[in-house]
Design brief:
Blueprint (H helix, E strand, L loop, with lengths): L3 E4 L2 E4 L4 E7 L8 E7 L6 E7 L4 E2 L8 E6 L4 E6 L8 E7 L3 E2 L3 E6 L1
Parallel strand pairs: 2-11
Antiparallel strand pairs: 1-3, 3-8, 4-5, 4-9, 5-6, 7-8, 9-10, 9-11
Length: 112
């Protein structure tokens, strides 16, 4: 079973950018769907972005136009580029792979 490890979280001011990376322990080329979710304190985990094996991407309206997900099958990584960050983007961000596989998460804090 593939294992996922996120990195790249941190503290950033509103309007800034962060780039999150998700490193997989083995090839992700055969994984049909990978994505990112986030969970803020006291809230349910919510979907942020998904990408198919063919590169099709999907986003909720809350991040559309600001976040970009990409995958590099050769490097076994999935990246979430986050621009124009807002305080409401503050959360723990989780990488996920189809089949219920989750990473440990990385904290993103956006100050106003």
């Amino acid at each position: 079973q593939v294992q996922l490890e996120e990195s790249g979280g941190g503290l950033v001011q509103a309007g800034g950018s962060l780039r999150l990376s998700c490193a997989a322990s083995r090839s992700i080329s055969s994984i049909s769907l990978m994505g990112w979710y986030r969970q803020a304190p006291g809230k349910q985990r919510e979907w942020v972005a998904t990408i198919t094996s063919s590169g099709n991407t999907h986003y909720p309206d809350s991040v559309k136009g600001r976040f970009t997900i990409s995958r590099d099958n050769a490097k076994n990584t999935v990246v979430l580029q986050m621009n124009s960050l807002k305080p409401e983007d503050t959360a723990v961000y989780y990488c996920t792979a189809f089949g219920g596989i989750w990473g440990q998460g990385t904290q993103v804090t956006v100050s106003s």
